[in-house]
Design a protein that fits this description.
There is one protein chain. The strands form two sheets. An eight-stranded mixed sheet has the order 5-4-3-2-1-6-8-7, with helices on both faces. It is α/β, with parallel strands linked by helices and 398 residues long. A hairpin with an 8-residue loop joins strand 13 and strand 14. The protein binds adenosine-5'-diphosphate (ADP).
Length: 398
């Protein structure tokens, strides 16, 4: 079964086609600047050079039309006609408390995603545009939605309840939901395989550290706690997000700068984090280069980032009691050996010891632990699209 995986943002659309159950990636692509000048589709059939086509695309319908064109292209395509695509899987950021697993798209599911949009105002409406475009252009192809929050629904209340008036939870659903759940789930399953155990036997600390970043505590294969909150603003320092701060900063800065909470929220999302501290860039590679040239704020941004991850590793170690492995994944986790080394530095007394030579690697499944490390340190490149394709295949097959 060929499965199209779609990840829709407000002005972008990422896609892949995988053959299931062999899990073979056939092609992948990205549409950018939908509805803005300079719309472009970048498509890559595996084993072929990339093709890039700049063409105006006013909305997601037009974007999907160009994706379809690419998929059925004689040279660059992967199917003769779209009936060969037997299922579509969509990534959805927010499923609230309503979804603890992936489901087939129905009118009720669409309504729920719409109702949950206030909890993910940038993402859920964009996902709906993608679903609706696919329904219009491929009306007989079953669609599945895979929620980023679903994996975190196993958290106990003591992990997700904020110490705020309980009515805010009851009236407004204010609680921790977490994010990157599909990634944390993927690396959990893969880590269990690498450890030679069943998923329900493993306790892990999974560090998804990219531009967005979160850490999860996995107990017996299920999410027990996670660092992101009601929104992706909580937890670790990220490219442009501040992560954990004293909430009193908001009222304090509102008075000082004469700006409202919404503006501060935007600054905390877009101008903080690595970018805010370093003043240089949200990208860890730029920070690393600036650091090498002696830039002190770049070094500070690096150190704060590493310390916050270490902080959560310690916290989740305490919550779990026993940890089989620490997992590094996503852009920084997969590529930055020095960052992994700095995070693990000084954790020997917790039984966590990275082998600096083995650590000198990027982007492949690998055990990075020293021989005498009680806790394994694993590098596992994430694969959210594969997870979405697996769920989609299982649900549509059934
Ligand atoms: P997103 O949250 O957007 O999915 P990714 O997981 O793709 O982010 O991570 C992107 C980030 O990974 C970049 O912003 C960059 O900071 C980091 N990154 C990528 N390659 C390297 C590298 N070689 N060294 C350090 N950081 C890297």
């Amino acid at each position: 079964m060929k499965v199209l995986v779609v990840n829709c943002g407000s002005s972008s659309l990422k896609y892949q086609v995988l053959d299931m159950p062999s899990e073979t990636l056939l092609c992948k692509g990205l549409v950018e600047r939908i509805g803005i000048d300079g719309s472009v589709i970048k498509h890559e059939k595996i084993g072929m050079p990339k093709y890039v086509k700049e063409v105006p695309m006013n909305d997601h319908n037009e974007a999907i039309l160009h994706v379809i064109d690419a998929l059925i292209d004689r040279e660059y395509g992967v199917v003769k006609n779209m009936s060969e695509i037997e299922a579509i899987g969509h990534r959805i950021v927010q499923g609230g408390e309503r979804y603890d697993k992936s489901v087939l798209v129905t009118d009720k599911v669409i309504q729920d995603i719409r109702e949950l949009a206030p909890l993910a105002p940038l993402h859920n409406p964009a996902h709906l545009l993608g679903i609706s475009a696919c329904q219009k252009l491929m009306p007989s192809t079953p669609q599945v939605v895979v929620f980023d929050t679903a994996f975190h629904q196993t958290m106990p209340a003591k992990s997700y309840i904020y110490a705020l008036p309980y009515e805010w939870y009851e009236k407004y659903a204010v609680r921790r939901y977490g994010a990157h759940g599909t990634s944390h789930r993927y690396v959990t399953l893969r880590a269990a395989e690498m450890l030679g155990k069943k998923p329900e036997e493993v306790n892990l600390i999974t560090c998804h550290i990219g531009n967005g970043a979160s850490v999860s505590a996995i107990k017996n294969g299920k999410c027990y706690d996670t660092s992101m909150g009601l929104t992706p603003l909580q937890g670790l320092v990220m490219g442009t997000r501040c992560g954990d701060i004293d909430p009193a900063v908001i009222a304090y800065i509102a008075g000082k700068e004469n700006i409202d909470a919404f503006e501060i929220d935007s600054i905390m999302n877009k101008k903080s984090g690595i970018l805010g501290i370093s003043g240089i860039s949200s990208d860890m590679r730029d920070v690393e280069n600036a650091m090498a040239e002696g830039n002190e704020r770049a070094k500070l941004a690096w150190d704060v980032f590493a310390q916050r991850v270490k902080h959560y590793v310690g916290a989740y170690y305490a919550e779990l009691g026993r940890v089989d492995a620490i997992i590094f994944t996503a852009g920084v986790g997969e590529n930055s050996a020095p960052m992994r080394a700095d995070i693990c530095e000084g954790l020997e007394n917790l039984g966590i010891k990275i082998d600096l030579e083995a650590n000198n690697v990027r982007g492949e499944d690998k055990d990075l632990s020293a021989e005498d490390s009680k806790v394994k340190v694993l590098l596992i490149p994430t694969n959210e699209e594969l997870m979405i394709a697996r769920d989609t295949y299982e649900i549509v097959k059934a």
